[in-house]
Amino acid sequence: MEIRIDDLSGPEIAQLLNEHLQDMALHSPPESIHALDLDALRKPEITFWTAWDGAELLGCGAIKQLDPQHGEIKSMRTASRHKGKGVAAGLMDHILPEARRRGYRRLSLETGSMAAFAPAHRLYERFGFTQCGPFADYVEDPYSRFMTKEI
Questions:
Q1: What is the reported pTM?
Q2: Cα 101 to Cα 95: distance, rounded to the nearest angstrom
Q3: Structural contact between residues 113 and 84, judged by C-beta atoms closer than 8 angstroms
């Protein structure tokens, strides 16, 4: 698996992010969906990575800088046909050292709270994330689960 910074211009990533947004809509009302579209991900405070096997896109993940010591994990997604193969763990193994290199003291994330998000909860817990309250501009929401990790 090769992980590289992505400029969000390829059709593969557009398709994967569209799948991500459609999946979020199945489990959460519109006001509770915090996944970002292509334009929102093209902000200077966001670094976006994709994971590849040759020409095949396996998944993606991003860090959004909230402040010089706090980053947020965004857009973690594994392509449907590659779920359960360690793609998300590989991305986390890449993102966490990068966050430390940047000098972040904490990484946080928002994910869904429903059973469909249980694999994500297990992944983040395995990497040392624990439940927390809302951070940044988030508010309490029964459809959201907030997690954080000191790094």
A1: 0.92
A2: 10
A3: no
Predicted pLDDT of residue 26: 76
Collapse the DSSP code of 60 into the 3-class scheme (helix H, G, I; strand E, B; otherwise coil) and give the result. strand
Please report the pLDDT score of residue 98 as a whole number.
97
Domain range summary for the chain, segments of one domain joined by +: 2-106
Q: What is the spatial distance between Cα 60 and Cα 43, in angstroms, rounded to a whole number?
A: 16
Q: Are strands 70-78 and 130-132 parallel, antiparallel or unpaired?
A: unpaired
Give CA separation, 123 vs 56, 89, 119, 137, in Å: 23, 7, 6, 24
- Contacts of residue 53, Cβ cutoff 8 Å, sequence gap at least 6: 1, 2
| DSSP collapsed to 3 states, 108-128 | EEEEECCHHHHHHHHHHHHCC
CATH T-level fold of 2-106? Aminopeptidase (3.40.630)
CA 91 from chain centre, in angstroms, equals: 9
Residue 25 has pLDDT above 80, yes or no: no
Rounded Cα distance, 107 and 35, in Å? 17
